[in-house]
Design a protein that fits this description.
The protein is mainly beta. It is 14% helix and 38% strand.
Length: 98
């Protein structure tokens, strides 16, 4: 009986086949971040607190000497922004597919 020789694919051919399979699969959507930042201005050196109205999550920051503040890393949701000494507003943070 004659021996059969089955050719083996080279690593380069396998890499090309994998790349082609991945490229033809489901579209891949990558998000840079799932959190957002709220920036604003209030009274200098005051405390600003962002509270998620649905979950109760809070993040607090101190304004700088000019009254500027940045609350980073907020998950999507509706937030009440309270400024120490008075002032409040509500903002909605949404994640867009675009």
């Amino acid at each position: 009986m004659k021996a059969r020789h089955t050719p083996r694919p080279t690593p380069r051919l396998l890499a090309c086949a994998m790349a082609a399979a991945l490229a033809m699969g489901e579209p891949v959507v990558m998000a840079q971040s799932t959190s957002a930042t709220v920036r604003g201005q209030a009274t200098a050196s005051s405390r600003v607190t962002a509270t998620n109205t649905a979950t109760g999550l809070t993040r607090s920051v101190q304004t700088d000497a000019n009254g500027n503040y940045t609350v980073a890393g907020l998950p999507p949701g509706t937030y009440r922004i309270d400024v120490e000494g008075g002032g409040s507003r509500t903002v909605a943070i949404v994640v867009s597919g675009r």
